[in-house]
Amino acid sequence: MDAVSTQDDAWTVAGRPFASRLIVGTGKYKDLATTAAAIEASGAEMVTVAVRRVNLSDTKAPMLQDYVSPARYTYLPNTAGCFTADEAVRTLRLAREAGGWNLVKLEVLGPAPTLYPDMPATFEAAKALIKDGFEVMVYCADDPIAAKRLEEMGCVAIMPLGAPIGSGLGVQNPLMIQMIIEGAKVPVLVDAGVGTAYDAVFAMELGCDAVLVNSAIAMADDPVLMARAMKAGVEAGRLAFRAGRIPRRGAASASSPMTGLIK
Amino acid sequence: MPTNFAGPRRLARFGRNADTRGMETLVEQLRLMVNGAAMAVNPGLTVAGLAAQLGLDTRKVAVERNREIVPRSAYEATALEDRDEIEIVHFIGGG
After folding, report:
1. What is the mean pLDDT of residues B5-23?
2. Which residues pair with A36 in a beta bridge?
């Protein structure tokens, strides 16, 4: 039996406790069966989903909900593809109607090739959504001032990018992420940029409350195996953060005692 | 921008300059835009009726009519009108 349990280390967002500190996206998978298997392997309890038009020429096509049950997983509807505050608000109102829940992920992006968060539009949308009763987890720039402002507005989680969406470059901005964590009273998650399990470990060791991963799992050669790796990575990083790492030193320090040596 | 409700009179006007063959059918039907595609339906059709006609599982979708959400509880009571713009969405995979 594992002496250290991760079960007693739940985190809470908008009053909802979660044991898993990994949130996974449901996009980019080759099919819904793989989506379901990878999410199962990830141990995630919350999944992000997009809102799109129903294909009216094929309304009997399999739906995400048939494979990833909203009864089992907390659906976190996103605003992917929205480039204005109005589009984001409209999309999440539809999501609330479709799903009946008000916990959402807000993201308003600037144009390619950066797809960097459009912060003025993000503020505008966050304000409208909070006023409308939504609980907003917000994707944002790695800007401690902007992050604090979003928290003060009432956002329930702050989710700065570690690197551009889908880039797989890992956490490029550890100092800024750390500053955001230190200044926040709500959960901070790295959202976007994770490329492999190491990046998830790293983000968690910085003190993030959780990590959001999509492309790194969905686009891996073996998504199910990578999902399991991400689960292990998030757990390892969290445990290491809790354990407290040794200070970095500029000189060697022997691991074995220098006394009692044979002569 | 929301489309203003045109009403049935507008239909007649539409018909006057149009090819009058099949006028009866044209005048009787409501012209909708559903998810960006033109669709003609019988007058009096409700949102619930439209969903049934399209074969939708209403537990898994959300409907917007002229940019206003139609709550699921109002599907039966919401009659469609000519030139309504309808969006029907659901959840799909996304990051």
Report:
1. 48
2. none
A207 phi, psi to nearest 5 deg = 110, 10
By three-state DSSP, how is residue A53 classified? strand
Residues 6+ apart with CB under 8 A from A232: A197
CA of B38: which chain A residue's CA is closest? Answer: A56
Q: Which residues contact A67 (CB under 8 A, 6 or more apart)?
A: A32, A33, A35, A36
- The reply to whether residue A50 touches residue B93, judged by beta carbons under 8 angstroms, is yes
Summarize pLDDT for B15-67 with one digit per residue, the tens. Answer: 444 555 555 555 589 999 999 999 999 999 999 999 999 999 888 899 999 99
Q: Which two tokens stand for residue B35?
A: 């998810």
Answer whether residue B11 shows pLDDT above 50.
no
- Residue with the bigger pLDDT between B9 and A183: it is A183
List C-alpha distances in Å: B63 to A94, A196, B8, B68. Answer: 7, 38, 23, 8
Q: Is A98 helix (H, G, I), strand (E, B) or coil?
A: helix
Following CA atoms B46, B2, B27, B38 in sequence, which dihedral angle do they give, to the nearest 10 degrees?
-80
Interface membership of A52 toward B (CB under 8 Å): yes
This prediction has a pTM of: 0.86
Radius of gyration, alpha carbons of chain A? 20
Which two tokens mark A35? 């989506």
CB contact under 8 A, A51 and B90: yes
| ipTM field | 0.87
Pairwise CB contact (< 8 Å): B95 & A27: yes
A255: left (phi over 0), alpha (psi -120 to 50) or beta: alpha
Please work out, in degrees rounded to the nearest 5, the angle formed at the alpha carbon of residue B50 by the alpha carbons of B94 and A48: 10
CA A115 to CA A139: how far, in whole Å?
12
Separation of alpha carbons B85 and B38, rounded Å: 9
Q: pLDDT means per 10 residues in chain A (263 residues)? A: 66 94 96 96 97 90 91 94 89 92 94 93 95 96 97 98 93 96 97 95 97 96 98 97 94 90 90
Structure token pair of residue A240: 């290491």
- How many alpha carbons lie under 13 Å from residue B22 in its C-beta half-sphere? 5
